[in-house]
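Example 697.
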Amino acid sequence: MKKRVAVMCVSKKSNEFYSDYLEAIFAKTIDFFHYSLDENGFENMIKADLYLVCSTSSNVFEYSMSCIPENSNVVISSITFKKNSIKKVKQIPKDSNVLMVNLSKNMAMEAISTLNRIGINDINFIPLGPIDNMKDINEYKDIKIAVTCGESRYIPDFVEEVIDLGGRVFTERVLVEMILKLDISEIMGTKPFKSYIQELAERDYGIDELSRKVSNIELKFDLVLDSIDIGVIGIDVNNRIFEFNKAAENILHMKKDDALGKTTDESLPFMPLNVYKDNLLTNDVKLITIKGVLISLRTTSIVENENFKGYFAIIERFKDEEDKQRKLRLQLLNRGHKAKYTFDDIKGNCPILKKVKQIAEKMSKSNASILIYGESGTGKELFAHAIHNASPRSDMPFVAINCAALPENLLESELFGYEEGAFTGAKKGGKAGLFEYAHTGTLFLDEIENMSQSLQVKLLRVLQEKEVIRIGSEKIINIDVKIIAASNENIKDMVEQGKFRKDLYYRINALPINIPPLRDRKDDVLLITDEIKKSIGTSFELSDEVKNIFINYEWEGNIRELRNVIEYLAYVDKPFINIEDLPATFLEEINFNEISYARNYDNTLLMEILPSEKLEKYMYVLKTLYNAKKENISLGRKNISELSKNSECHLSEQEVRTIISYLSKKQLVVVSRGRKGTELTLKGVEMVEKKVQMDNK
Ligand SMILES: Nc1ncnc2c1ncn2[C@@H]1O[C@H](COP(=O)(O)OP(=O)(O)OP(=O)(O)O)[C@@H](O)[C@H]1O
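Predicted structure in complex with adenosine-5'-triphosphate:
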């Protein structure tokens, strides 16, 4: 809405004069109402946003102030001259006598003091109003120069040179005060304002600086707005356009100057903006067609101190927007939403795996959901990546989430996204869910068996309807996503136990894949070992025994466990790996009966098999049993404890019990009930002999 300013002058004439340049500067933002004492008086003024008092002589001033409603914005004018007009005054020789002629003697004195303020102090000015008698005029007969402010008609005939300063103009202070009080600082960046203050004979540095700053900000803001390729149209509460950037010009084929200051009805009748007239009802995106071009339109309100001040209409060619979305998707692809592996990365020659790979490769061409079953570490994720990369969706996002990794509510918001304010802590602007990110690509739901029943219902809905609704929103978002789910557990069993929804099971199990565990692919163990070695850049060799152990080991953690062991061995940093180089935890699992002991022990291995801090005590028990075996006598716990008392290694009966139980677990001794007592196994015998050999070396 335009501001209303009452201009209060003594004469109609000066009011007309001021009105010209006030209009030139403020026409777009201010409606001026002119009042003068010699015409309409000040008594019946409109209710204005600001009163500009132009009569400063004391009696008129007091009367003017008494006519202004209380608590109004008031600016008291001050007057100066234009730079150009005082040039000639400056050329007048020093100490000359010069007449200053104006409407009244008072006004002539005011003009003189203004010139003094500007720095013209070396001329003897004589103030003169309209001449009422010849006596006065004769006094000044010798004066050849007169200066006036547009009142040359009062200059006596004997004056030879007349310098007309023209009408006086408001100082910069007056204009800036008006601007600040009316909160229209954007004016300071406009051309008419800038050229006006440039022309003034006197400048106030502070105001100058302020206006420079403001105009700089304006300028920068304009530059920013013009540098973006999204059309921005600023619209105030009266539906008047106050901003129209370059992109808006390009998109709408319309010039900024034809839009600024006009209402949207006048200049943009083809845009459905009327709904926003009083308040911003919605900020949904609308698709509109303008001259055959599809344009997306959204709005964002301008709110200041909780008051609606208008809104920005943001427009973009729909095609540009789509292109940007595509580019963003591609960036996401490069930032994790990308499938890394192909079927070539799934190593293995055994027929059972080859068959699974073949089936999976065929399945990748279909859009139906795939359920991969396999024990932990068998390569389910690897398969999911490979399937996506072999599918027609390979250029689109591959988004993976582990359903066991997040609590239910977080998983829900991750999957479906949420609207701003949907719940405490919901991010400003809301958040897109993984379904949206995976649009036209693949969503991999790992460990789906961990998904809660209520989320299973929601997931089923999304898969059936092919649409998601963000939490806290009502808007339906269409999605086209291929689902690959993986499970460590047999979901069919879970369905039977009522732990997994049958309907969801049938939906995701359209194409099932069963990955065999590593223990069923013994032929692949060494091949995969070599592949992993290559992939982590290590080149150690395994001893035959270790190879044997690897082939026969149960590998409960499957290929992940194999990988972990190989990474450990790479860290051991030896060119040749023996049993004793294997990790202790791994050794504990090994069934020693399957291992040939025709090899050298060293202390490291002994310490790995026997608790190192009590090695001496363990060796004492082993050696005692070794001697007993040689002499074919049987020993029980009690005997061993008693014998120890005659040695340096004192063992209580309880200690002997603990040691024997441990050695028995390691298959170094067997414990029989009754008279046979505890006996060394063959392995136990071998171990003691090797240790004795080592000690003797
Ligand atoms: N056939 C294979 N060839 C080479 N490396 C493999 C093979 N299968 C699995 N791996 C590797 O084994 C590790 C585990 O694989 P992956 O994460 O795919 O298993 P998973 O079945 O998804 O496991 P979990 O159920 O525990 O999530 C990964 O480092 C993977 O690269």
